Amino acid sequence: xxxxxxxxxxxxxxxxxxxxxxxxxxxxxxxxxxxxxxxxxxxxxxxxxxxxxxxxxxxxxxxxxxxxxxxxxxxxxxxxxxxxxxxxxxxxxxxxxxxxxxxxxxxxxxxxxxxxxxxxxxxxxxxxxxxxxxxxxxxxxxxxxxxxxxxxxxxxxxxxxxxxxxxxxxxxxxxxxxxxxxxxxxxxxxxxxxxxxxxxxxxxxxxxxxxxxxxxxxxxxxxxxxxxxxxxxxxxxxxxxxxxxxxxxxxxxxxxxxxxxxxxxxxxxxxxxxxxxxxxxxxxxxxxxxxxxxxxxxxxxxxxxxxxxxxxxxxxxxxxxxxxxxxxxxxxxxxxxxxxxxxxxxxxxxxxxxxxxxxxxxxxxxxxxxxxxxxxxxxxxxxxxxxxxxxxxxxxxxxxxxxxxxxxxxxxxxxxxxxxxxxxxxxxxxxxxxxxxxxxxxxxxxxxxxxxxxxxxxxxxxxxxxxxxxxxxxxxxxxxxxxxxxxxxxxxxxxxxxxxxxxxxxxxxxxxxxxxxxxxxxxxxxxxxxxxxxxxxxxxxxxxxxxxxxxxxxxxxxxxxxxxxxxxxxxxxxxxxxxxxxxxxxxxxxxxxxxxxxxxxxxxxxxxxxxxxxxxxxxxxxxxxxxxxxxxxxxxx
Length: 637
Hints:
The protein contains seven helices and 46 strands. With 637 residues, the protein is mainly beta.
């Protein structure tokens, strides 16, 4: 392999047997050498630190390839935390002096560029650096291969250094779990322990070591504010460097996506972070296909309207000189402007020392009304129930109200694309909604309370219910259904029943005759009320419609009374499945159990109606004049 120019040469000091001299006390090191276990533990600890710094180097190369900017350099006790505008943050530890071993050979991990891409290299001893190869004998990318034709890319790999004791009792280096080879032979991590010999004369002092247990050199991060760069110096004799640009410390915009303006709203509030007295002027330049307009404000004046399409308002400051109301740029829109036209807004802040800080944002004209804010309200629902969240948009006339939803704890409650929350288990979750227009967010807390089963409860005349009968209250019904979304709502069945009643006459089609709701399968209240109102004053009402007449009498001849004849599904799907629990409560107070065939309020046609057999657990189609069916009343609460 040709000689490589290493952009990142990582020099690691080996743990080895050291030479002795009168000026160097190697007692502690001799004890470590005599203790293989201790040497291995030290190497493993060293590997942990080295591997973390290899990952940091990979992050640095990622930022370099992405043409990223450094946004922050935060000193730590033994290094720095580096943040980037797009890439993940990395932690860099300062190097420290190590010692050069006599017998062990230390691998040197590096990266180099080949055909425009970075790849890992490895160097052992005095041999030339070679490409680090994978199991297929291919070079290993530092930051991953790009995908072709829209396919997923291949992730880059960070070399992982480790040590292991082989069958010969010696400690060797491993990279990515495989033995590190040099000339086909495994590379030792520590020197061989020699046989004990006679005491000899003192040896010469050992040479000073290269950088020890860090990838980056001591004080290897240099910030040059004049040039606006950050330079990273790596450990090792070559001290290779990376230099990345540093983002301006001045904040102007809070985001850099397209900003839309329309005829009603055509100004943008800046996100300056300057302090009063720290700047000399602010300049706004607006460039479109028709030319460029400029507005300038000084630190002590307020700009007036300009005829060039852009106005600038100075920020105001609090007593502590922090910003109170931020600067604003207002756009003077041409009379003939069309939807989709855009311009480039460049805002420049000039420091007191003359330094300029600028940022540019795309401004697009639209007739749409943008979302300015979105809000949600906290909710509480019962376990197993659902509720639909309705976000509040400001302004209410916003054009694009598309949103996405997310639940912080799907095991408590999930959220569908339409905002429907389905509770799963008792607990709390935070629901987040994000607007498609502008990426604005709002949150609310949804509390899921444990569901209490009230089926079989005694229901009293005062509107309360309980699992155990209360002696001082009058029972009027038994709960057989509860609202899945509200435990305070449900249905009760009467304690008594009408015996051998007929539904009606034939061939009278009540639906065709205008009795609204009489063919509903889910709600019997409307059909019951309307049929009673139609026939209650008929002299044959009590005989021809005896089932409904019994309900009317139970309501004390009040057409708006609480009791009604249940619809087909209210009997078949709601009351019948709870027959065992309801009958247990009915029997406890010697009330009439559910054991017969009962009329529903649901008409089939002019001749027939549905009845439900509780012993047979099925629905029947019967002639309306059949008097072999009983009647049971139900009510809602």
